[in-house]
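Q: My labmate handed me this sequence with no annotations at all. I'd like to see what the chain might look like in three dimensions before we decide whether it's worth expressing. Could you predict it?
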Amino acid sequence: MATRATRWAAVIAVTAMTASGCSLLNGGGADTSAPAAGHQKISVGIIATVDDAPVKLAQAKGYFTEEGLDADVKVYPSVQQTMPALQSGEIDVTLMNYVSFFQAEAAKTLDAKVVSDAYQGTPDSLVLLAKPDSGIRTPKDLAGKKVSVHSKGNIVELLIKAVLQDNGVDPTSVNYLEVKFPQIPAALANGQIDAGGDLEPYITQGEQQFGVQPTFKIVTGATDNIPLSGYVASAKFIGAHADVVAKFQKAMVKAQKAAADRSSISSVLPDLTGVDKQTSSLLKLGVFPTSVDATRLQRVVTLMKTYGYLQQSMDVSTLVLPTPNS
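A: Here is what I predict for the chain of 326 residues:
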């Protein structure tokens, strides 16, 4: 009989492959509907998380082809790889979490615009996980604890700090560690961390494989439906290929709308995330917006300024490319 450690090692290996895009199913590829001659090419960088499911849906349902695009979709491990790929021209559009995007814009290391909103967090789709016997039930229980945030300075850390501050807990009393989303459940099980901010499919996998469970809400009240990520294109690419970007935007509106149908979105989740069909139906999903709303995105900037992620505020409306009329 396999030992528990052996089983953990196997699980970690599988989830690591999924997160890094090493799964054969997660490889890049063009729209599954054969593009007609004369279609314009676009290269899209995504990450193997539920945020990007509508891109896979756009491929499966032929939305890119309908708009005259030949879409090549490439899967990357994280924004640490997608942003350089966007800057170098290796890809034309990529998913980015908004905190990383606004920080890069403020630092002038990126000149880009949000062309399509991707994903909004809800109380059940982005959670703080812990073991049942952790004793972590309220924000006050996090003081002095080791908490993983995927990468320091990202949206998860921001949300945790906001919840702590709102509940009278010093955000600096927590020891924030970097553990990537797929590895968080195993890190909880082996005692590497006390709690971790995680998202699907790793929430459900963690519950099933390691018995971890959500604690108090970190997306709640003022941060409910907080924008998490969007698709960005460089200003250079937008200037040179405005028509291609507009077609991408229109295809993504169709895909985001289709994502509201659970059966449709569940059909692409196994390919994207590596979970089986049964598990994909259990995933707790957030919201897939169908338009880019600068006012909504300004909420992220306000939080970032409040907690020191930005030295100065910024006008998000200048960083958004409106969606063209269909």
